[in-house]
Amino acid sequence: MLPRRMTLLALLAACLIAPAPSSAQQDDGYDESSFMSRSRRITFDGMRAGEGYFSPDGAQMVLQSEREPGNPFYQIYLMDMATGDSTLVSPGMGKTTCAFIRPGTGEIQFASTHHDPLTQELADDEYRVRNTGEERRYAWDYDPEMEIYVTDPGSNEFTRLTDARGYDAEASYSPDGEWIVFASNRNAYNRELSAEETRLLEVDQSYFIDLFLMRADGSEVRQLTETPGYDGGPFFFPDGSRIIWRRFDEAGLIADVWSMRPDGSDQRQLTDFGAMSWAPYVHPSGEYILFASNKLGFTNFEVFMVDVEGTKEPVQITHTDRFDGLPVPTPDGERIVWTSQRHGDENGQLYMADWNHDAAMAALAAAPARVANSES
Amino acid sequence: MRFRGLMALAVLTALVAAPAALAQDTAEDARRHVEFLADDALGGRGTGTEGAAEAARYLIAQLEALGARPLPGADGFRIPFEFTAGVRDAGSRMAGLRHNWDEAESIQALAFSEDGEVSGAQVVFAGYGITPPESADYPYDSYATLDVTDKIVVILEGYPQDADDDARRVLSNFADVRFKAFLARTKGALGILVVSGPLSQGDGAVRAPRAGMAGAGAGIMAASVSRAVASQLFELAGHDLAASQAELDTGNPHAAGYDLGVELTLETKLNRDRREGYNVVGHLPAAAPAGAAKPYVFLGAHYDHLGHGEFGGSLAGASQAGEIHNGADDNASGVAAVLLAGARLAAAERQRHVVLGFWSGEEIGIVGSNAFLTDGALPAREIAGYLNFDMVGRSRDNKLSIQGVGSSESWRGLIERSNFPVGFDLTLTEDPNLPTDSTAFNLAEVPSIAFFTGSHVDYHKPTDDAESINYDDLARVAELGALVAGRVANGDAPEFVAFQSEVRGAGRGGSQVFTGTIPDYAADITGLLLGGVIEGGPAEEAGLQGGDVIVNFGGVEVGDIYDYMFALESAKIGEPLEVTFERDGETMTVTLTPRARE
What is the pLDDT of residue A24? Predict the structure, then answer.
């Protein structure tokens, strides 16, 4: 499985279409140093890494990285933010993605396919494809074997929380640690599909993905979104009052950042670039949302921020060629971790910078009102 | 850092404020070390000079203060080695055909020649004297039709100038005269005479031996003869050297050499000025040694520099010639980093012994560290890892390069963890074959990395002074070095990987083309960022300057340093070529005319 938001890169490569309408460059007088300082790459081990998320005290960060010998997929690691030491917390085999630390207990949830009897075959196939450039025997992007697990780090015991056929992933905890919001296309596998739906599932498994809520033990599952097209990447607001996520249009080409109440009501669109805007995360101040968008170039994602109500025009944060996305602030709000290809190869790695919250607040206050690019 | 044409870097702007968490005293310690070593009083710390001896006394006092001890079996911290400070011809001559050539303008021994005499040896012309090794996969063999056993070989300097690009690119890698002498020896020749051919650039004068190429004898008598003498010799033997060169210059691999049909007496004599230099090496014993294999982890930095410019490759312009080269960044900064890291490690738990080594003779050819490893004062097989610090005092924008991580699979993980609390914006590069002391360790199969903050406009100039050092970040380099070394000291020994360097452009002394560009090695952009241009060089004359990004050089698209070296090898001396570059967002093209490297 590709990571919850890096999946989009694969889609981009697949559909060579013209970019969404965009201006060449935002000209608001800001550059990266306006909001970030001491930028540095923090992962070097292994061929790729991404999606860092923090424990509530900021002492630990969970991330995914391909660095286990013999396994050509992401596994989940827990990094000590004081020493830089990292330890494997997932099974070490199969595909994993989208980890999150449970507030209060320190348990870690992630999505994994390690129970799949095809695991070794898939690993061999992946190495064969890399070595020879031949076609994949297995082509799905949203592996229906992907299920959500929880583990106590170091225990090497994994409790499965979902068992519905279909892709279950992209999960995160509520601030009180009692709830999990996640994405799933289980509704494409639990009923007879129409001919048109069957065709859709073949070309785009993500079309059927909606958001769901369940208790931390996997019980009381309820569906939060029902619109056609991919809803994914949900996270709670710091106070637990709302959920932020990204919603694709039916064609899977344009995405925007939305928020809603945890019961699925009051769904509001916060961005409107007419481009692919995704990977939102709320700053711990609760004042603004960091997200990524390819507004400025089809494969050149940059990090932006927008006020939580989405009333203002977003402000561009990163200004470096190649992919910059998946921004996540530390719980104290003073640093930011994101995934980038700015070092120059195709594989993402994690970067960190010191974050200037005051400058961000001032820039948001000065930003003009949002201009509509498309109908809400 | 030892001079190499394509080494150097970056003039980035804006200093970054140090993190407040950094203990101020370590930055002040770094300043104290650098200001002492880079003071005019030490005269540029040339190997074997009183200034270097004064530096060594300072380092010994610092080691004693850290509680370090001499290596087991060593008499003290000072570990001497011999080096050649100067070399001159002592009356080499050649005779035959009723002629006697013994004037200094006719023949002089090359610096690496054996002293010796041979009478009545047959003489063979072997063209450019190049046979690429099998790995180069290029069919060219100057010796294909020749038997040179117990004979004297005459060869041309350089490589076929009019051959096609591919040929020149390959052959230039093997055109170094020392490599040619080595090849002639393996073919069984007793002596080798080298001449700048009648069709080559320059006046064809005899070459005087240069100390930079000296060292032990190459196992063959080797001499430079003037173009006039060589032409005369060919004429007396009934041949035409210019015509032979013309045939060879097309690059035709079937243009063969020939037996001159004459006999010569050759005598080579050199006076070598042998002197003694000192490495300074101590170790911090482990409290409870692991007892396992490889019980040492090693941090090293060279403390010698260029003196007044006479010890190695000074880049001083005419207006600065002969001034003291203080070498604050190169390499008082690295010495300070090792001392600071040593102080941290002395206070830390360690299961391996920590060795702190300060090399001399680096600027004259990595002599000190090579001698240390050759002499066996500490067997290389007992060293778990080596960390080199050379030019680490000019960090800009929080940037630091660590080179040579390809020498072990363990380095990336060790560095990722260690850098996390330090927070440098790191660039890691794989190739451990570098123009600094870590190469000696890599060749001895010790996993080796090199810390480097990039070259700059003061590189190898008298202006490399203490006030330009970024002491806060220098202290952070030491902190990172101590963390990496500490992890090696308390973990599994990194496993050595024999890294295969890129063949392309790796020729040492092969490319004779001089452009006067100073590439920024650490830059991570598309194209080649110039850290600067050499005063009065072709690049400066063409209008290039530091900060320009070369994207096309003589029709070759330049994406990175290797592309640039590729392009350089296809450039021809004296032939103008177009250089396209970007400056301030604009793309411009200028004409540059390469000259012969002096």
Answer: 41
Whether B425 sits inside 8 A of A84 (CB atoms) is no
pLDDT at A251: 87
Residue B282 contacts residue B77 (beta carbons within 8 Å): yes
- pLDDT lower than 70: segments of chain B: 1-24, 134-135, 211-218, 289-292, 501-512, 520-525, 561-563, 565-566, 569-570, 597-598
Distance from the first to the final alpha carbon of chain B: 20
The structure tokens listed for A127 are 């190495």
The CA distance from A343 to the nearest CA of chain B, in Å, is 7
Q: What is the CATH number of domain B91-268?
A: 3.50.30.30
Environment class of B368 (CB within 10 Å of its CB; exposed 0-12, middle 13-18, buried 19+): buried
Domain B513-596, CATH 2.30.42.10 — does that match? Answer: yes
Answer whether B428's CB lies under 8 Å from A40's CB.
no
Q: Is the ipTM of this complex over 0.95?
A: no
Whole-angstrom CA distances from B362 to A181, B45, B393 are 61, 11, 18
Q: B520 to each of B166, B554, B555, how far by Cα in Å?
A: 26, 19, 21
**Residue appearing with tokens 């699925």:** A264
Superfamily of segment(s) A7-13+26-365: TolB, C-terminal domain (2.120.10.30)
Q: Collect all residues of chain A within an 8 Å Cβ-Cβ radius of residue B424.
A: 40
**So what's the pLDDT on residue B264?**
95
Q: Is the pLDDT of residue A13 over 50?
A: no
pLDDT (0 to 100) of residue A375: 47
Retrieve residue A170's tokens: 């992209």
Q: Name the one residue in this structure whose structure tokens are 């583990």.
A: A151
Instruction: For B24-86+273-489, give the CATH class.
Output: alpha beta
- The stretch A130-156 carries a mean pLDDT of 86
The CA distances from residue B339 to A161, B354, B430, in Å, are 54, 12, 26
B541: left (phi over 0), alpha (psi -120 to 50) or beta: alpha
Show residues of chain A in contact with B427, CB under 8 Å: 343
| A42/B420 Cβ within 8 A | yes
Q: Which residues of A touch B527 (CB under 8 A)?
A: none
CA contacts within 13 A on the Cβ side of B419: 29
A121 vs B: CB within 8 A: no
- Looking at residue A239, what DSSP letter applies? T
How far is Cα A273 from Cα A270, in angstroms, rounded to an integer?
Answer: 10
Confidence (pLDDT) at A139: 62
Domain ranges of chain B: 24-86+273-489, 91-268, 513-596
Nearest to B423 among A40, A45, A343 (CB): A40
Give residue-wise pLDDT tens across range A187-204. Answer: 999 999 999 999 988 888
Helices (H), ranges, chain A: 7-14, 32-35, 119-132, 195-203, 357-366
Neighbours of B187 (CB within 10 A): 20
Tokens linked to B333: 């900064």
